[in-house]
């Protein structure tokens, strides 16, 4: 009987640990679990108003257009962190800069 109780306790400990890790990942890097979508990325790039529209390109990068500026080519890694890629002909000093990660509030919005 004692071994059954030990197995139940170990199993419950493993389940609680896995749930905690999933919650931790969802809070810190939600794109790992939820994936990257144009809506999530547009909220991350365009801010709370979602002023950007993003679509995936054939090469795996994303193209985001904002009302206030030219379209940006963006590279997104597996964790949902993105970085603006400057076109090759752009002067490095005037290249658009930006990087961030998709956060929980980019995925779950309460409008």
What attributes does this structure have?
single chain, 111 residues, alpha+beta, five-stranded antiparallel sheet
Can you offer a commentary on this structure?
The protein is α+β, with helices and mostly antiparallel strands and 111 residues long. It has one domain. Helix content is 40%, strand content 23%. The chain is built from 4 helices and 5 strands; from the N terminus they run αααβββββα. Strands 1-2-3-4-5 form a 5-stranded antiparallel sheet, covered by helices on one side. The N and C termini lie far apart (53 Å). The mean pLDDT is 83.
H/E element string? Answer: HHHEEEEEH
Mean pLDDT: 83
Specify Rg, calculated over alpha carbons. 20 Å
Helix fraction, binned, reads 25-40%
Counted by DSSP, the helix tally is: 4
Number of domains: 1
Seen as an oligomer or otherwise, the chain set is: single chain
The biggest sheet amounts to: 5 strands, antiparallel
Let me know the number of strands: 5
- Gap between N and C termini: 53 Å
The helix-and-strand class reads alpha+beta
Q: Summary?
A:
The chain has 111 residues and is α+β, with helices and mostly antiparallel strands. The chain contains 4 helices and 5 strands.
């Amino acid at each position: 009987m004692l071994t059954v109780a030990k197995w139940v306790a170990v199993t419950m400990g493993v389940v609680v640990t896995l749930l905690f890790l999933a919650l931790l990942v969802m809070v810190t890097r939600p794109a790992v679990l939820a994936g990257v979508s144009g809506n999530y990325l547009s909220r991350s790039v365009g801010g709370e108003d979602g002023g950007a529209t993003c679509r995936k390109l054939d090469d795996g990068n994303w193209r985001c257009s904002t009302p206030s500026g030219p379209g940006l080519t963006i590279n997104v890694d597996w964790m949902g962190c993105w970085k603006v890629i400057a076109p090759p002909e752009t002067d490095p000093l005037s290249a658009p800069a930006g990087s961030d990660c998709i956060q929980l509030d980019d995925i779950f919005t309460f409008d």
